[in-house]
Specification:
Elements: H1 14-22, E1 27-31, H2 35-44, E2 48-51, H3 55-58, H4 70-83, E3 88-92, H5 102-116, E4 120-124, H6 130-138, E5 143-148, H7 154-157, H8 167-183, E6 187-191, H9 195-204, E7 209-212, E8 220-223, H10 225-228, H11 246-263
Parallel strand pairs: 1-2, 1-8, 2-3, 3-4, 4-5, 5-6, 6-7, 7-8
This protein binds 3-methyl-2-oxobutanoic acid.
3-methyl-2-oxobutanoic acid binds at residues 31, 50, 52-54, 92, 189, 191, 212, 222, 224.
Length: 273
């Protein structure tokens, strides 16, 4: 099989992602938060489904990712698992469930795995959360790191601008990425950092580096499904490529439905019992 070809039958595992990187096969990843979307993404051949805490924004309408709870993430992940056969499903650990207390981090990760059946967790941060990551890994739970722009820290950053443009922050990011690989993470997301820096990290690590707004020299890409399908149109950063305009399609379809109901055209005899 040539590289970049979808193998629709073989289950994607964390181990397989590392193999994909080793042979230069790019990894595709999208978010989903519900059964029906997950089923579509899985059947289309996506490699990884992320049950992102971006659900806080696009599902619940919150301004940040901070308010979403562990119970809500478990609910979303459980629904996604039911719609997924092939893709690897990773669930974000929400804000406040892992920082500062490794035992609480472990308990949160165990709840995600036990109650949702997700196959891995993703967690934001570097050296500050090392002990939490180690504790989760010690229970046999696969962990994906997340560095660069980490939206749970928006109140510290103050903006969603590109991160790690300055040497000091870039050096810390490289050190954090190496540390996460060393302690046993199976992959890392790099969000909104210079492409050259992301490429350097990907070249130095053996585990896959998935980028969002991190250029093309990484091992795979992730986008928020609602953004790339044009369902959520209020978000247009430079890194976002829109593959559809589903908000317009839905708007049009709903408009037609309303018109048919009002005119009495729907339902027809054939649509009645
Ligand atoms: O929550 C999310 O959707 C994410 C991606 C942006 C990587 O963490």
């Amino acid at each position: 099989m040539s590289t970049n070809t979808v193998d629709n039958n073989r289950k994607v595992t964390t181990r397989r992602l590392v193999e994909m990187k080793a042979r230069g096969e790019k990894i595709s990843m999208l978010t989903a938060y519900d059964y029906s979307s997950a089923k579509i993404l899985d059947e289309a051949g996506i490699d990884v489904i992320l049950v992102g805490d971006s659900a806080s924004n696009v599902m619940a309408g919150n301004v940040t990712t901070l308010p979403i709870t562990l119970d809500q993430m478990i609910y979303h992940a459980k629904s996604v698992m039911k719609g997924t056969k092939r893709a690897l499903v990773i669930c974000d650990m929400p804000f406040g469930t892992y920082q500062g207390n490794p035992m609480e981090a472990l308990a949160s990760a165990i709840r995600i795995m036990k109650e949702s059946h997700a196959e891995a967790v993703k967690i934001e941060g570097g050296s500050e959360i090392r002990e939490s990551v180690e504790r989760i890994l010690s229970a046999g739970i696969p962990v994906m790191g997340h560095l660069g722009l980490t939206p749970q820290s928006i109140n510290k950053f103050g903006t969603y601008n590109v991160r790690a443009r300055e040497k000091e922050e870039a050096d810390k990011l490289i050190a954090d990425a190496k540390m996460l690989e060393e302690i046993g993470c199976f992959g890392i997301v790099l969000e909104k950092i210079p492409a050259e820096l992301a490429g350097r990290v990907a070249a130095e690590l053996n585990i896959p580096v998935i980028g969002i707004g991190a250029g093309g020299q990484v091992d795979g890409q992730v986008l928020v499904m609602h953004d790339m399908l044009g369902i959520n149109k209020g978000f247009s950063p430079r890194f976002l490529r829109r593959y559809a305009d589903l908000a317009d399609v839905m708007h049009q379809a709903v408009g037609n439905y309303i018109q048919d109901v009002k005119s009495g055209d729907f339902p027809s005899e054939a649509e009645s019992y």
